[in-house]
Sequence to fold (390 residues):
Amino acid sequence: MTHVDESTTGTTVQCATTPPDSPSPRKPIHRDARAAIAMIAPAVTVLLLFTYLPALLSFVASLFDVPLSGQGWSFVGLDNYEDVLGDPDVRQAVRNTVLYAVLTIVPSLAVGLGLALLVTRLGRTSTLVSTILFLPLTANLVAMAVVFRWIFALRGGFANELLSFVGVEPVNFLADERAALPTVAAVGVWRAASFSMVLFMAGLTSIPTAVHEAAAVDGLRGIRKLRLVILPMLRPTIVLATVLTTLQAVQVFDSVLVMTDGGPQGATETILTITWRIGFGYFELGRSSALSFLLLVFLLALGYGRRRALLRGGVS
Amino acid sequence: VTPSIRKLPGRVGLATVTTLACAVALFPLYWMLRTAFAPEDAVFFRGISPWPDEVTLANFSRAWSEATRRVGPS
Fold:
């Protein structure tokens, strides 16, 4: 389809309104749809098989008393949910998980933002420093948990040697009820700060240069610029980082199991470690499924909350 | 006072914080390496030294032989 455009100079120019590479209107749409379905089918199949089907099976199992052999399930309705919600060990695990999340989320976000701002201020060394600061996220958490257990050991651990060097009595970091959870949370911060830093670095680069120039013209520098310009512009990144860090904190498992195994006296037991213990320690698979399904519902609510928070801020 | 001298404290502060942050990030990885090359009885700290008194590769050969014994043919 073409039309003729006459310019003021009198020359006639013929313009094509349909770009040459655009699809022909006669081309059947369902062919594209079929190709799209074929391309997303493997991903959807894997998602259905390894995410949604286990979640569904977990919900079904939570309504039954499941013997270890897997044979002869007996329907118990919501009894498993009543059991786990009334279990004092589960309540302690929930309290510990909330405390772990509080001890992890805010410091890791603050440290992550600080590190991102630090890296953006560096000149030629920024690539090297950001790579070094990214390493905690790439390290295997189980191996790192073993290393941290050595570092925080009562006798011969680096932390206590350092304390004795400055004349402080040794602290039983991993076997003291008051110190164990903050110690495990410190490992969580070490790792999560690295993750937050990457997110904030991406967020900082998305702030237009014109905004920085306008702030400079207005005489905004330092903390005032951070509070009035950078933090409001980083709002979507802050929401994303908060939700992702919360998801990690609520699902903490490896570091707790390796460093303290939920002890001392359940002081570091978290929702996932007690779910694992109920299922594979006490072999009560129905109760374990009920607890994991409750966790899944909480995580879904968190994801929905994040979407609502972003939409409120005008970000889709 | 020249501008470069005026900026010096800020630069020193930035370098200090960067070095500290890198040290905290790297320390557990360094400790893992230190332990990997130390004899088994020297896993725990014996005085402040950056490297174990005795360096050995025995941990690697032991880990390799144990791993292959567990996953390999019986």
